[in-house]
Amino acid sequence: MQARSALFDLYGDYLRPRGGRAPVAALVRLLTPLGIAAPAVRTAVSRMVRQGWLHPLRLSSGPGYSITPKAARRLDEAASRIYRTGRSGWDGRFDLLVLDGPTNRRDRQRLGANLSFHGYGMLDERTWVATRPGEDIDGLLGEAGVRFERFTSIHAAGTPGAVGVVRRAWDLTEIGEAYQRFVAEQRPLVTAVTARSSDEDAYAARFRLVHAWRTFLFRDPQLPPALLPDRWPGTSAATFFDRHASRLRPAADRFVDHCLGNAPSAAVGRGRKASARTIRPKGPRQ
Known about the structure:
By secondary structure, the chain is an alpha+beta fold. It has helices at residues 3-15, 24-31, 38-50, 69-82, 105-117, 137-143, 160-169, 172-191, 199-214, 233-260, 276-279; strands at residues 21-23, 54-59, 62-67, 93-100, 121-122, 127-130, 147-154.
């Protein structure tokens, strides 16, 4: 797990609801259970400041960093997709982008990653498609210095034409297999956290669970059900993720508050056991 990617997860999942700021010392403490050393954290923070994601500030507990408005927008959008709070029906419209540039390979790769994050799939080197207009796509392309044209294509939901567009833009077989691997790899890690586990262990397991799930923001455009295969693996994977992310959240939150200095004197630190009510699985095992 890279420090920069972990910091995005940390700010988005834990620090954004707590004001979006934290002292450097707390950032180091919060990434230590994931095997990320202090020098890597500081290097990643400096890079994120240069890229406009973080802003340095002075806190009562020492130097720290807060998210910028640009980061807040990105993290909020990611959260709505990670926890699937923004799902809606489909009106049969595709959003089409025809791009003129960039010519540099590295710039193309960066732009492609950004478009994928916003739910677009590539039909060819110049044409990208999505089942819903991405937020501030005009601004993203303008910032990248890319000239473009934008169209709307209308299909009746579930028609062969619409399904054919989807099959060209996304490899649903590969995405479905990735969801199956996610569940297979994460199940032993999250189910190992029991009533005898520490809050730090619950936090580390949940952090890795969310981090792995977050990769689907760049893989899965979260297509409407009418365009998905039957028994789509993403549905059962989302149920698995929601169940364990919720189950481990209280213990993980206690560890975060402890590291931030927000916990009372008797609060959980490294090694305190999480309560059985916090982490006992609910319902049948996924």
